[in-house]
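Protein fold
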Amino acid sequence: MTSLDLTGRRALVTGGAQGLGEAMATALAGAGARVAVADVQDDLGPKVAESLGAGHIFVPLDITDDAAWGEAIDDTVSRLGGLDIVVNNAGVEITSLLVDLDPAQARTMLDVNLLGTALGIKHAFRAMRPGGAAGNGGVVINVASVAATIAFPGIAVYSATKSGVDRLTRVAAMESGQLGYGVRVNCIYPGLVPTAMGAGLANDVARLGLFPSPEEAVATVIGLTPSGRLGEVTDMADAVVFLASDAARFINGVGLPVDGGMGM
């Protein structure tokens, strides 16, 4: 059986300062990778990188900024000695009924969730392809959502952006293959996890009158999940380690549900 050992590999995780991103950075480091924690939160990010131990770094990154991506990748390659794994995790969810849609909020989700992921793929490819700053191929893992596969009220635009992440993933895998970049591209569909974002969603859908209470909203999600529970950050992080490892060497251009069966 192929090992999940990532010793010697270098990874960059966006949104790594908290929530799912922090758990993913921790899991990748635990598997032996050296990790760049990338985030706009320059107060929390360095603390996460320090908590991972020696050899891990923080890089400031606004994922919607093309130039910032170039700087973050260059910094990572220079300080870690290469780049083998990019996890496009950073995202934002703003709950709203369609009849109350705020264009500015919609653009924020499009910019962060969709454009930010596309820029992450762009700069990962440029660094990892032959002749790039790292130049040895690698793995890109995008974070979509179970919202891309189900119809849950109050998150229409968020769901649309995460569906877009799925399409970006598949086209990126095909381009990488046809152009000989040597980069596998996959995504995961996390189920609801009780992070700050997950708790915020439960509160928001109750506030909008879609559920009697946040607790009822969570109970509905659990009722739709064959595994009978919410997800945990470690569930998502372990899936990322798997996709980054050689155990997933022939898995390319797919979306992996990590949702306890909710989106089946």
